[in-house]
Amino acid sequence: MIRILKTPISEDDVREMSVGDTVEISGYILCGRDAVLPKVVKMIEDGTVGDLGVELRGQVIFHTAVSPAGVGPTSSNKLEIESSIAPLSEAGIKLHLGKGRLHKETVEALGRFNSAYAVIPPVTALLGSKTSEEKTVAFPELGMEALHLIKVDKYPAVIGAVHGRSIYDEEL
Questions:
Q1: What's the CA gap between 29 and 37, in Å, rounded?
Q2: Distances, alpha carbon 18 to alpha carbons 73, 97, 155, in Å
Q3: Is-contact 60 39, C-beta < 8 A?
Q4: Are 26 and 152 in contact (CB under 8 A)?
Q5: DSSP assignment, residue 135?
Q6: Which value, to the nearest 10 degrees, does the dihedral of the CA atoms of residues 114, 25, 91, 73 take?
Q7: Which domains does the chain possess?
Q8: What pTM was estimated for this model as a whole?
Q9: Crossing angle of helices 104-112 and 79-90, rounded to 10°
Q10: Nearest Cα to 127, choosing from 90, 72, 86, 165?
Q11: For burial by CB atoms within 10 Å, which of 5, 101, 127, 139 has the most?
Q12: pLDDT tens for each residue of 68-84
């Protein structure tokens, strides 16, 4: 069964997720990766995150750059990205999209903040056909690695970590 998710993602949406669920995400989502996510975390710490002009509560963040070639997941376990997951989840991000195995501490943090991580296979062409709008939100000097807001329709993903469990756990 495919679970349909529309942004913003609710607390109940996350509570109903299970590791291994297939989801399709529609609505506006944020895109950012190693160059920009530490900047957003700093804005959270400084209390200036409201200056972005987008609400983080209930939001989805896709670990990707936005370029003319399209969007595709980058490795979420890069230090700059993975270290942003807990503070972004605490600030309200409900779903992180990317690829790769997360550390146990990150999976546990997702559980504490009722957030989830979903794995998107590297299917840039498919995702490009499901992306209809794009806007640079902040840090335009970073080019394709700036913080972007895109509108998506039926983005496919698999829930990779939720409720303190991961698809990469051996006991699954």
A1: 14
A2: 21, 15, 18
A3: no
A4: yes
A5: E
A6: 100
A7: 2-158 (3.20.130.10)
A8: 0.79
A9: 20
A10: 72
A11: 5
A12: 767 888 899 999 999 99
